[in-house]
Amino acid sequence: MTDAGDQKRDDTGGGDWLRTVPRGDDRERLVCPDCGLVNYQNPKIVVGAVAVADGRILLCRRAIAPRRGYWTLPAGYLENHETVTDGAQREAHEEARARIGIDALLAVYNIPRISQVQLIYRARLENPESVAAGEESEAVALFDWAEIPWETIAFPSVHWALNHWRESADRAVLAPYSNPEGETGER
Q1: Helix, strand or coil for residue 158?
Q2: In this model, does residue 128 exceed pLDDT 70?
Q3: What are the distances in angstroms from CA 21 to CA 25, 27, 48, 104, 166?
Q4: CB-based contacts of 175: which residues, under 8 Å, 6+ apart?
Q5: Contact in structure between 61 and 69 (CB atoms under 8 Å)
Q6: 1-41 — its CATH code?
Q7: 44-168 has which CATH code?
């Protein structure tokens, strides 16, 4: 079965979706009045990585909205039927032509205002000499810590991930971080 997303009709052969509280639920959902199929609209999962080679961190300057022209980690939406580590590796390749080796789960961030859960990994950049901008990046670069363009970082969670990476870079084993105290991803 496909995710109904924002479609107006039930793809199982039923009619138009109705917004109602299904039996046994506590909130409105889109429900097919003909067959009872519930269209659950759940948070999006974002996967990405702080990819590092020789102490330098890979960042991508966004070529797409939101925050076009700002720097971010290689990250994006997890695809259906994809593992989270495969998704992080795919995003690194799509955005920076990077091959990364996943080291550990660095953090799980919750961004409720946009219904996102972000899984960010600590990773080794395996091809630093050949990274290049992909379709969604204007440019890519490797930054020493002191060179990171903090004023033009795209999202609060990128700040968090970079700082969590620095805090844990020398640890072989780490428990994943989460949002800093009181932070929800508001700009």
Answers
A1: helix
A2: yes
A3: 6, 5, 35, 40, 46
A4: none
A5: yes
A6: 2.20.70.10
A7: 3.90.79.10
